[in-house]
Amino acid sequence: MDLPTLAEEAAKKGIQLLGTGDCLHPEWLKRIKELPQAGDGIFVHGTTRFVLTVEVEDLRRVHHLLILPSISKAEELYESFKRYSQDIDSDGRPSIRLTGEEIAEHARDAGALIGPCHAFTPWTALYAYHNSLRDCYGDMVDYISFVELGLSADTSYADRITELHRLSFLTNSDAHSPYPVRLAREFNRFELADLCFDELKSAIERRKGRKIVLNVGVPPAEGKYNESACIRCYQHYSLTEAMARRWRCKCGGMIKKGVRDRVNELADCDTGVHPPHRPPYLHLIPLAEIISLAIHKSVGSIAVMRIWESLLAEFGTEVNVLVDASIDEQQGIDPRVFAAIKAFRADKITVKPGGGGKYGTICLNADEDEQPLEGQLSLSEFMLLH
Fold first, then answer.
1. Residue 382 confidence (pLDDT)
2. pLDDT in tens, 98-115
3. What's the CA gap between 229 and 358, in Å, rounded?
4. Residue among 113, 183, 181, 180 at smallest CA distance from 148
5. Would strands 146-148 and 255-256 be described as parallel, antiparallel, or unpaired?
6. What is the SS3 string spanning the chain?
7. Largest Cα–Cα distance in the chain?
8. What is the mean pLDDT of residues 128-143?
9. What's the rounded Cα separation, in Å, for the pair 173 and 187?
10. Tens-place pLDDT, residues 290-302
């Protein structure tokens, strides 16, 4: 997960701008400073640009994403947080002994954007510990400009909550690995005049004609916490069953409330009521997962990676392979992989929901418990309609 590797792998996925992560950590910031700059707060390696980002944890264990304008502001924020943190020099995601409201004040003073990370997950998230944005951010609530949805939620979930309608939604997620099944499995498309912090800020805040034009993410059912389930044996429970069992599984493990149930508790709309500014949402499954499913090899295997690399060499990006490019079996594609891509495009792939910390399972054949992917337009059709 060093910067050169991230830059190289992002280029393969077709991603132009990545968050650095961990930019308050002195050693990581030192590495960032070694990269050439392309304007304030933007750094370059090869064809990939980086913007300064960091995730921090508050007193209630809620995680917040900060997007910073410059090295000097990162250093300023480091100094202001250092007195409240015991691990800011050792942990890329430092714990800060401040409330969400106080962290937002520090972010404002540094000119940084701030919003809750993976807002609905049952661990270290806004709605895990609070029932509203104001509960977390207090008088700073109006400064919050975005919500990061996380893997187990999409626009149809989040827009059932009226207080979120004014905010932009980000569908970026923690990579945990630079490789194709994790890096850029979720991403955003922005309408910008240039790749710089001010333009990115304007797009998130929807000013000067800048905006987010597309959110892309995995189907929510594939997320690790989509349904309520035991964190030990992964047995799934309905909300009623879990409450009756006092959130203890028959195996003795803890049942963790799923995102879908938590959204149902918070929702004041029966269905997602999208405000006019909300962009389309495109569900994509990482290509490596589709290949793995087709050839029955592990997602990180040499066989899967070879096919993945050959498809990108032929078609350019994952989005092209999965959605936009004209693909036929005469192009030398493994017939099993061709059939799996064709099934994805025809919405015949289904997802057995995840829960309790275990990812959902992608399936080619539908079972009663599996959730079919909803039909959707192609990426190019999204852009034409927008």
1. 44
2. 999 999 999 999 999 999
3. 9
4. 113
5. unpaired
6. CCHHHHHHHHHHHCCCEEECCCCCCHHHHHHHHCCCECCCCEEEECCEEEEEEEEEECCCCCEEEEEECCHHHHHHHHHHHHCCCCCCCCCCCCECCCCHHHHHHHHHHCCCEEEECCCCCCCCCHHHHCCCHHHHHHHHHHHCCEEECCCCCCHHHHCCCHHHCCCEEECCCCCCCCCCCCCCCCEEEEECCCCCHHHHHHHHHCCCCCEEEEEEECCHHHCCCCECEECCCCCECCHHHHHHCCCECCCCCEEECCHHHHHHHHCCCCCCCCCCCCCCEEECCCHHHHHHHHHCCCCCCHHHHHHHHHHHHHHCCHHHHHHHCCCCHHHCCCHHHHHHHHHHHCCCCEEECCECCECCEEECCCCCCCEECCCCCCHHHHHHHC
7. 63
8. 98
9. 8
10. 999 999 999 989 9
252 strand-pairing partners: none
How far CA 336 is from CA of 288, 332, 343, in Å, comes to 13, 11, 11
242 in Cβ contact with 257 (< 8 Å): yes
Pick from 289, 319, 315: which is nearest to 304 by CA?
Answer: 289
Residue 14, token pair as written in the block: 């077709």
What would the pLDDT profile of 261-272 be if each residue is shown by its tens digit?
999 999 999 887
Which domains does the chain carry?
Answer: 3-221 (3.20.20), 222-266 (no CATH), 286-348 (no CATH)
